[in-house]
Hints:
This protein is mainly α and 408 residues long. The protein has helices at 4-27, 30-51, 57-80, 83-98, 106-114, 121-131, 137-144, 148-164, 174-198, 204-219, 223-236, 262-278, 283-296, 305-318, 322-336, 338-348, 352-355, 358-370, 374-387, 391-407. Helix 6 crosses helix 8 (148-164) and helix 11 runs antiparallel to helix 12. It is globular, with a radius of gyration of 23 Å.
Amino acid sequence: MQDPAQQIETVYRQSAPRIRAALIRLLGSFDLAEEALHDAFLEASREWPTKGMPRNPVSWLVSAGRFRTIDRLRKRALLDRHQQDIAYLSDLAQQAEDEPVTIDDDMLRLIFTCCHPALPEEARIALALREVCGLTTEEIARAFLGLPATIAQRIVRAKARIRDQRIPYTVPEGQALEGRLETVLAVIYLLFNEGHMRAGAAERLCEDAIHLGRLVASMLPDAEALGLLALMLIQQSRRHARLDARGDLVLLADQDRDLWDRSLIAEGEALLCRIHAAGEIGAYGLQASVALCHALSPSIADTDWRRIVSLYDLLLEASPTPVVRLNRAVALAEVEGPSAGLLQVETLLADPSMQRYALAHSVAADLLRRLGRVEEARQRYKAAQELTALAHEVAFIEARLRALNASG
Length: 408
């Protein structure tokens, strides 16, 4: 059984994004919500060790953060008698009395707010990753293959615009919903990927993303909304096989396929059938089709790599990104050999942004290892190691380096 400090840390890792989203709606301010989030966990660290964890810790933390903020604002208003602060405090107090704490859909409201068309396009996803996913500017910069200072400026300006234009924390309807769909789906998938990469307690982000994906698909059963949901379900089906008992990363080729969740795979496959029946498929549907090829293959040797390469060719037409090209190179290596894949990866690594992408170096290292170019593989693994802070990825790279050293 976890001690109180571990319980609090687990709740933070699993639920901080949902708590933050609820506090942003209730307090109407990104900055106040961030302070309230820290206040709430500070209060928990004082009370839970003696009183025990509450039955619903998330609701407890939202309430604690909201009321501590109201108390702090009330004290400041009494001291300063600033009319604007007093009016704002009155609104907050009224909401606190009239509005119950609701958690489940606050993240969706926040995502749509961050994706409002009044915000610059390049700032929307960055803001959502910061406020919905809780990523640091450095982590967002890595996701965008950009610079932290640039990302920080975008986020600050976007927050100011939401405040100054009083953009509401609501889910739009009709054409307004359709107009924000592309960016909203991108944010949901990035949320899923964040949980998928971090694993452990952070995998709660994957569950949150799937929940949000279901909500969006029910509101607007667009081919891409269905495709994203299918993709997340199929990827989530492998969650019990991705790490071993020690928490170390297990590659797809080495995973125990008996641990894959066949019900999630079947649900994803059914969604893809709906998409194909409608006669339209987009980038998420194509990625889901690749994932389904893996999910339905009895082993890595039986995987239809030629079909996967052809799916990536189609995906490049819909989404010609360096990451898609990298994934295609991995599949091409299985069809034409590691030399063909390595040629594609080395071309990608000529791009400075890809040089900051750990996975690109890791893929190159693996292909070099398969070609027997040990010293070059070692250098690429070290480059990947320097670019990742995820414990299970670091452990995997260290294991590969030990194996290379042992082989000479």
